Amino acid sequence: MPLIKKVILIGILGQLSLIFFQSLSMGAITVPVEPRDRVDVSINVDVQFDEAAQLYTYHYQVTNLSTSQQEVSDFAVEVDGELMNIQSPEGWSPFIFSKEPVILWGAIGSGDGPSDPPPGGGDVPSPFQIKPGETLGGFSFQSPAAPTVSKFFTQGWVQIPRADDAGDFDDAGVVPLPFTQDSKSGSILSPGLDDSLIFNGGRRPSVDGFLAFVGNENRETRTLPIAIIIRFGINGETVFPETFSAALNRVDVTQDFIMTGNGDERVAFFEVGSSPIVVGRNVLVTGLDGIVPGTTRTATDGDAFTFFAVE
After folding, report:
1. pTM score, whole prediction
2. Comparing C-alpha atoms, which of 242, 234, 241 is closest to residue 210?
3. How far is 195 from 281, CA to CA, in rounded Å?
4. Of 152, 247, 266, 274, which alpha carbon lies 20 to 30 A from 123's?
5. pLDDT > 80? residue 149
6. How crowded is residue 184: how many other Cβ atoms within 10 Å of its Cβ?
7. pLDDT grade for 153, boundaries at 50, 70 and 90
8. Neighbour tally for 100: CB within 10 Å
9. How far apart are CA 193 and CA 59, in angstroms?
10. Is the domain of 133 the same as that of 183?
11. In terms of Cα–Cα distance, which of 148, 135, 134 is closest to 58?
12. What's the per-residue H, E or C state across 207-242?
């Protein structure tokens, strides 16, 4: 698979080759090592659910902000679980790490015309890289696992470091850095949640199925940032989604819950500073109206879900 091999050579497989100068005299080094984290990015995520196939589809769109100093050449996402139907934008190729729960896309396409090498020789940047101020979509895959919070990593393009002799880097005091430390990272939604774990409150059996928390246990401890998934009518009950309400630590967060496409399932993403979530104890109070099974009576399922957030 030549495309995959090329990704390994010029991509972000930092466990193999990415290194950073700490103290370096130029000596016999012809192309010095440069950091690859000089990018500022924004990632948009769209999650959809195919009920017939029982698969979630994850779509990612990468924006390289105008403040970036490099073109984005590599984009990676932490994942947990089987991935299928991996899609890539033109000029990009995917690679799944064998020892890490990560999928990587690298810009390796060369375009239609010839490219001039950079001064002094070396590798040539791909014309499909994401330039500052540009946005690129088309990164996607499917998974049976529900969304949870994970990390993404992006790297800017630099020339491959070169020296007259491999030992010259060691002599110059070059210290290898893992790929995850030589990249711009942040939080994202990706597969990993066990959606067989359901907490429905357990207070009023006749209405507890109106609304349930997926992949979560009451009073559990979780690492920030945190995604909360809520599913309506888990036993087929008739419910009224327009009556849904949610308050986190007494602050209304109803609009933060967006539909995933899995029926009436919704997900919200909470970070310290941009939401009411705090380090320590948090209480999410929810409400939803529905028809009590076996009757024509309307009732409300009100739940208080407590969890503890740690950094």
Report:
1. 0.65
2. 234
3. 23
4. 152
5. no
6. 18
7. very high
8. 16
9. 17
10. yes
11. 148
12. CHHHEEEECCCCCEEEECCEEEEEEECCCCCCEEEE
